[in-house]
Design brief:
This protein is an alpha+beta fold. It is built from ten helices and 19 strands. The strands form three sheets. Strands 1, 2, 3, 4, 5, 6, 7, 8, 11, 12, 14 and 17 form a twelve-stranded mixed sheet that branches. Strands 9-19-18-15-16 form a five-stranded mixed sheet, with no helix packed on it. A two-stranded antiparallel ribbon has the order 10-13.
Length: 330
């Protein structure tokens, strides 16, 4: 199933999406009509907390009430929000070797741009790639990002005033279910509620300076709208193997990159298991895969301009679309 959070008449609701008919079933309304409690459908976090009971009830309502047209809403009439507007935690990993190697070169090129201009940037982008540091094969490296800066599909991101180098990043992510610590790898799959698309917007010029402090990104990754999620969550039974997804980035309709999720250094199950070592992982947390190779401007030397619209396409999930606008231009 595909679950979405949307706003209608000023209220946030959740629904089951039928992409073939371009519409969505109002789960709370279906539950009330069926005479069963609608509490699991008050929000996406409530559905996640309801665990198998909530999922089974959603399936039952879809089967029993799916033929009642007045319970369905055309997607064009609803304002889609991030599927989980405020995750309980957000972590983002570095799972793709090509991205790690190319983004290292790209970061050096951004520094060269700031100190030596465009020609220095071009020269740095021609340098050979370094080998992958061993730590990325030894451990599933991740950082904690800002769960309060989440936006959904269609949102316009106001670019931070302190940055001139705007970038996108195509990632796949999981939302967790069930709360537990010390999760074995072979049991971690049971803690995945579903998959969504993540655009990890990045202020590359600020990030390049911050990373010299060897503590991780701060304002380079944390500003209002920097974490875009959507358009919905796809359950594992419908998605299948998350490492067989083809992806594509389009900016203003132009294809900038194509890739796939094959060859992740660590699976989502391994990432969740590692993060849970002597740390409780809660239902409703988000884990990003890290950027798929070639799927950010830092890797290919092409960044964003004011007013650009970015579309992230991922097989079996959908398309996440956002626009960036410089605040000085509004």
């Amino acid at each position: 199933m595909k679950f979405a959070t949307y706003r209608l008449a000023g209220a946030a609701r959740i629904g089951v999406v039928d992409v073939d008919s371009d519409r969505m079933l109002d789960l709370a309304a279906a539950a009330r009509r069926d005479g069963v409690p609608d509490a699991p459908f008050a929000s996406m976090l409530d559905l996640i907390d309801a665990d198998d009971i909530g999922l089974d009830r959603a399936r039952s309502l879809l089967a029993k009430r799916g033929g009642e047209d007045d319970l369905w809403l055309p997607l064009t009439l609803a304002e889609l929000l991030a599927p989980v507007p405020e995750p309980r935690q957000m972590r983002d990993a570095m799972s793709f070797s090509l991205h790690i190697r190319q983004s290292g070169r790209g970061a050096r090129a951004v520094q060269a741009l700031q100190s030596g201009g465009r020609e220095a940037f071009k020269a740095a982008m021609q340098e050979p790639l370094e080998e992958l540091p061993a730590v990325y094969r030894d451990l599933p490296i991740y950082y904690i990002t800002n769960r309060f800066t989440v936006v959904g599909p269609g949102a316009t991101v106001q670019w931070p005033r302190y940055s001139k180098v705007m970038d996108y990043e195509l990632e796949v992510g999981v939302v967790t279910r069930r709360t537990r610590s010390n999760i074995p790898v072979h049991e971690a799959g049971a803690h995945i509620f579903g998959y969504t698309i993540f655009n990890d917007f990045s202020a590359r010029d600020r990030q390049a300076v911050e990373m010299q402090g060897r503590l991780g990104p701060a304002k380079g990754k944390s500003f209002d709208g920097s974490n875009a999620l959507g358009p919905w969550i796809v359950t594992p039974d419908e998605l299948g193997d998350p490492q067989t997804l083809n992806v594509e980035v389009r900016v203003n309709g132009e294809t900038r990159a194509k890739g796939d999720t094959r060859g992740m250094l660590f699976s989502f199950e391994e990432l969740i298991a590692y993060a849970s070592q002597d740390e409780t992982i809660h239902a409703g947390e988000f884990f990003g895969s890290g950027t798929v190779g070639n799927c950010c401007g830092l890797e290919i030397g092409r960044f964003l301009d004011n007013g650009d619209t970015i579309e992230l396409h991922v097989d079996r999930i959908g398309v996440l679309t956002n626009t960036v606008v410089r605040q000085s231009a509004t």
